[in-house]
Request: fold
Amino acid sequence: MMPNYFTNKQNIREIGVFVIIGVLNTAIDFTVLNLLIIFFGISSPVIYFLFKTFSFLAAVMNSYVMNKRYTFSHRGENLKTFPKFISVTALNFFINVGISSLVFATLSASFTFNPFLVANASAVLGISFGMILNFLSYKFIVFKKD
Reply:
């Protein structure tokens, strides 16, 4: 029988810290995305894709530093962890930005919703799909304790 993952205090702490950092990363993602929309407008799905790419990358930079240091307390060398992080992040990029862009393109072409609202709702869906993948990948691949 597999032991219950959620009875281990270290696992619970990691999940809690990951969620807190995830909220911060999400705030960074949304702030950058919305500032780009406010300053430059949003005229097409291609522009949304570019804006979402920039906002994703801003959040990712924070994510590496914060998760390495605080979630997983990993003291390993950046030369070992960073390439793994980039690989996981590349996969998450396609999930996060891909789903967000697909939802935005579909909703903006099918309905007459406010583009600002559609952009943010699309971002929520993309972020949600990547969260579980990120936690498991960071814990068991990127910041795995040897």
Notes: The chain has one domain: 9-142. Residues 47 and 68 are 32 Å apart (CA to CA). The longest helix spans residues 78-110. The chain has a mean pLDDT of 87.
